[in-house]
Amino acid sequence: MLILECPCCGVKAEETELAPGGEAHLKRFGPGSSDEEFEAYMFARKNPKGVHFERWRHAYGCGKWFLAARCTATLEVFGTYPAQTTEPPAELIAKIQAKRPDWKGWK
Q1: CATH code, residues 3-99
Q2: pTM of the model as a whole
Q3: Mean pLDDT, consecutive 10-residue segments, the chain of 107 residues?
Q4: What number of other Cβ atoms are within 10 A of residue 69's Cβ?
């Protein structure tokens, strides 16, 4: 069972209390973007085996969105952080690199 801690309200919740929102830190393209940029934003998503950054919503709790870093192969959760963060916190990156020395980075 996947258990994530909501950084907004501090509650540790099982995945049944949360709603997944897909890949985190996507560059959104709006008016004036090319068809290729808009298509890539709408449909092209990473699906890695390993560390992945995702959006989650505490659906049956505070209702707020947050971001999480987890391993898609083992379900190991490295940490969560507020959705307004533009990139993963440095301490979270250091934690992932300490546990996964072969990890290539988040971008």
Answers
A1: 3.30.2270.10
A2: 0.86
A3: 94 95 84 84 80 95 96 94 94 93 79
A4: 22
